[in-house]
Design a protein that fits this description.
alpha+beta; Multidrug efflux transporter AcrB transmembrane fold; Alpha-Beta Plaits; 4-stranded antiparallel β-sheet; two-stranded parallel ribbon; elongated; transport; translocation; Protein-export membrane protein SecF
Length: 303
């Protein structure tokens, strides 16, 4: 089986990771995330059309009637349309939307009009950030107990790397960030960790079995041994996600984007961040050998 020199290319990979991270952080600071109604508050209007409309025509009609900062997407069937408005709610907003869209004589029924308060959106934003921090702290504790603190630190850096890149790309391209995207990022944390643990397990096993002290070579062997599993898992998962992206409709469009980006970043980081950083932190064979307990003073040694 052909062996790839992953660790030999780690410096190039570090440069790629650093550039992507700087661009992502810059986008988050300068452009900010395009938060959806789940976080900002606003109005959700669900409409039922007799025949499937053109979403571009719906957007043009709303814009011509003075509506601003809105999103239009299908909701399940092609003739079910969801309009999200980032404006003050009033009791007649649903009928106003229907009246604007009825300008061309389309048959439209108002299904519901609901308001999401800004206070609720702020609580969701704070709680979601706290949830991600708690998840990462739990990951660090788990890896530290299962492996060693250097593994935990590298795994945590890898997870932060993946999350920052996904968030940064959403900020850079101003894709809407809502609760479905947040759920996708939480799933990315779990997926990336699973991939990292598989690589770490093989690295630890190979260090214990090998007589060589060449850590880069040991890491290469471990990554090559898990490569087929990594490619199979990532490949089949991406096939499903691309199907969701193209066929799943607007409701889960950004959700599938967050997962696709996260899986690509997670697969890359499990090799070139989580594993390669162990070389930077100078992991040694002694780090994986439990320290011998010293005899208590005055205790006789067993024969």
């Amino acid at each position: 089986m052909r062996q790839f020199d992953f660790m030999g290319k780690r410096r190039i990979a570090f440069i790629v990771s650093i550039v992507l991270t700087i661009v992502s952080v810059g986008a988050l600071v300068l452009l900010n995330l395009n938060l959806g109604l789940d976080f900002t508050g606003g109005t959700v209007v669900e409409l039922h059309y007799a025949t499937a409309p053109s979403l571009d025509d719906v957007r043009a009609l709303l814009a011509s009637h003075g509506f601003e900062n809105f999103q239009v997407q299908t909701f399940g069937a092609a003739n079910e349309v969801l309009v999200r408005l980032q404006q003050t709610f009033n009791n007649d907003v649903g009928n106003q939307v229907v009246a604007a869209l009825n300008a061309k004589g389309a048959s439209i029924d108002l299904v519901r009009a609901e308001f999401v308060g800004a206070q609720v959106g702020g609580q969701l934003r704070d709680q979601s950030g706290l949830g991600m921090l708690v998840a990462m702290a739990g990951v660090a504790i788990y890896v530290a107990f299962r492996f060693q603190y250097k593994f935990a630190l590298c795994a945590l850096i890898s997870l932060v790397h993946d999350v920052v890149i996904v968030l940064g790309l959403f900020a850079l391209f101003q894709w809407e960030f809502d609760l479905t995207v947040l759920a996708g990022i939480m799933a990315v944390i779990g997926y990336s960790l699973n991939d990292t643990i598989i690589v770490y397990d093989r690295i630890r096993e190979n260090i214990r079995l090998s007589r060589s002290d060449d850590m880069a070579q040991i890491f290469n062997e471990a990554i090559n041994q898990t490569l087929s599993r990594t490619l199979a898992t990532s490949g089949t998962t991406l096939l499903v996600l691309f199907a969701l992206f193209f066929l799943g409709g607007d409701m889960i469009h950004n959700f599938s984007i967050s997962l696709i980006l996260g899986i690509v970043a997670g697969t890359f980081s499990s090799v070139y961040v989580a594993a390669a950083l162990l070389l930077v932190f100078k992991l040694e064979r002694q780090d994986l050998i439990p320290a011998k307990k010293e005899n208590v003073e005055g205790e006789e040694e067993l024969p």
